[in-house]
Design brief:
There is one protein chain. This protein is about 50% helix and about 15% strand. The N and C termini lie far apart (about 45 Å). By secondary structure, it is α/β, with parallel strands linked by helices. The protein is globular and about 50 Å long. Helix 1 crosses helix 8, helix 3 packs parallel to helix 4 and helix 4 packs parallel to helix 5. Bound molecules: nicotinamide-adenine-dinucleotide (NAD).
Length: about 240
């Protein structure tokens, strides 16, 4: 029997990388996508091939651009000829005061975080719908549910939009393709490494579990959500913030 195939966007590092390893461990062939640092993507591919008995390919593409999404789809179809799972994980964030934020940066965040999820869900989701089978997980954030710091206003708006895309694509592709979202709170990743130490301490104190999540803890939840055991969850947003 052929392995199932999962595409993970923004997967050269951080949560995307951890999701690749978790799904490879689950027996999926993996499409590792990112738009920068090909050598890092190659490393993730190599790690999968060396540590799990599944296949992996790296596809460099800016998934917020239609022509690059279509190229990615072609590559994946030629290599695997079916797609079972799509994880829309790619995103950017750049915190700053609203008065200093340019409209260009605002739009850039929306493009990378929202247009990417829209385009991937539109094209990969359609493939799944036609085959009457598939699962899409959109990585949102608790910032898409509540406002914490207006310094990430564009990121927060983008993550709220990802929640809306989740509801709409779940409706669009029903009853064949499941579309759900995870809204993590703080995760221990590169994205947060440059935050001031006192802010990290204050935020850690607010979390019931008194620590940021590790990427593996989010990845194992993704693993459950795309598994056959998770058979009645659709159009849902799961907050995964350790209590806050
Ligand atoms: N780190 C956290 O605390 C946290 C909390 C909640 C949600 N999240 C979400 O989890 C996901 C992963 O976060 P992370 O901390 O691993 O971030 P990260 O910055 O380490 O990884 C994101 C990756 O996405 C890639 N990317 C961005 N735009 C892209 C595009 N248009 N096409 C292809 N690749 C693109 C980046 O190059 C990067 O490698 C993101 O969606 C993020 O918003 C993170």
């Amino acid at each position: 029997m052929k392995n199932k195939v999962a595409i993970v966007t923004g997967a050269r590092r951080g949560l995307g990388e951890a999701i690749c390893y978790q799904l490879a461990k689950d027996g999926y062939d993996i499409v590792v996508n990112d738009m920068v640092e090909k050598e890092q993507v190659d490393k993730v591919v190599k790690h999968i091939e060396e540590n799990y008995s599944t296949n992996a390919i790296g596809v460099m593409a800016d998934v917020s651009k239609e022509e690059e999404v279509l190229k990615l789809l072609e590559i994946v179809k030629n290599r695997f000829n079916h797609i079972d799972v799509l994880i829309n994980n790619a995103a950017i964030v750049e915190d700053m005061e609203i008065k200093e934020r340019s409209t260009e940066l605002f739009n850039e965040t929306i493009r990378n975080n929202v247009t990417s999820t829209y385009l991937m869900s539109k094209y990969i989701g359609r493939e799944m719908f036609e085959k009457k089978h598939g699962k899409i997980i959109n990585i949102s954030s608790t910032n898409g549910i509540n406002a914490f710091f207006p310094t990430s206003i564009d990121y927060d708006a983008s993550k709220a939009a990802v929640i809306s895309l989740t509801h709409n694509f779940a409706l669009e592709y029903a009853p064949y393709v499941f579309v759900n979202s995870i809204a993590p709170g703080w995760i221990n990743t590169e994205m947060n490494k440059q935050l001031p130490k006192d802010l990290i301490k204050e935020e850690t104190d607010k979390i019931y579990l008194k620590r940021f999540a590790e990427v593996e803890e989010i990845a194992s939840f993704v693993s459950f959500m795309v598994s056959d055991a998770c058979s009645y969850l659709n159009g849902e947003i799961i907050k995964l913030d350790g209590g806050y």
